[in-house]
Amino acid sequence: ASILFSDGTIYRIGADSLLEVHREARSGQQAAPSEVKVKVGQVNVFTAINPSSVLTDQVRADVDRESRVGVEVAQDSGTTIAAYAGRAQVVDTGGDRVALGALQAVRAPVSGRLGNRTVVPQRPTLDEPAANSLFNLDIQERISLRWRPVPGSVAYNLQVGRSRTFSPSTIEVDD
After folding, report:
1. How far, in Å, CA of 35 to CA of 55, rounded?
2. Contacts 24+ apart (CB under 8 A), 21-28
3. Cis omega (within 30 of 0) for bond into 33
4. Residue 25, pLDDT above cutoff 60
5. What share of the chain is helix, strand, coil (3-state, %, to 5)?
6. pTM over cut 0.70
7. Residue 63: its pLDDT value, please?
8. What backbone phi and psi angles, to 5 degrees, belong to 20?
C-alpha cells in the first residue's frame, strides 16, 4: 500500500506491516512534516518538500526533505533504518544519535541502543531479462538471468515471485 500526503511525501508500506499515522503532512503557509510509527514490518519513505519522521519502539528517524529511507521492524522488534538517498538523523531511546547519508544504515536491537553505521550495498543492475518480463514456463523451460556485479559483493540473493510486490506468500524461489 502507498500513502500520499498533501506535501508530496509518499509512504510505501510492505506486506504484513502495521503502522500508525500520528501527524499528517501539510504544505502551504503552515507546513508540517508527517510522522508515523511502525509497529511491525517495513515502510519506505520518499520525502519531497518537507522532512518526515518515522518512529518505532527503539528509535526515531528524522528523514530530511528529498530523501528516501527504509525502516523495518523485525519480528524480534529490532529496528533497521537504511538511507538510500538523501539524509536521516536517527536517535535511540538513550538519546544517542547517528547521522545517515546515502547508502548507509544503522540497526537498533530490542535493547534500543544504536549499533554502528554500516554501508548499504548498491543494487545490481539487471542486464537480462528486461525488468517486469513475463514468461510462459509451459513454452520456455529455461530463463537466463544476468546482472552487472556489485563491487565488493560476495553473494547475491535471488527471489522469484508471482507478484511484483514480492510478498512472502508469492515468492517461489529465495536463494
Report:
1. 7
2. 22/55, 25/50, 25/52
3. no
4. no
5. 0, 45, 55
6. yes
7. 96
8. -115, 135
| The three three-digit cell numbers of residue 118, written as one number | 554500516
Residues with Cβ within 8 Å of residue 52, at least 6 apart in sequence? 9, 25, 33, 34, 35, 36, 45, 62, 63
Q: What DSSP string runs through the chain? A: -EEE-TTS-EEEEPTT-EEEEEE--B-STT-B-EEEEEEEEEEEEE--SS-EEEE-SSEEEEEPSS-EEEEEE-TT--EEEEEEES-EEEEETTS-EEEE-TTEEEEE-TT------EEPPPPPEEEES-TT----TTT------EEEPPTT------EEESSTT--GGGEEEE-
pLDDT of residue 27: 60
* 21 backbone dihedrals φ, ψ, rounded to 5°: -90, 115
- Residues 81 and 106: beta-carbon distance below 8 Å: yes
Residue 128 identity = E
On the question of pLDDT at 171 being above 70, the answer is yes
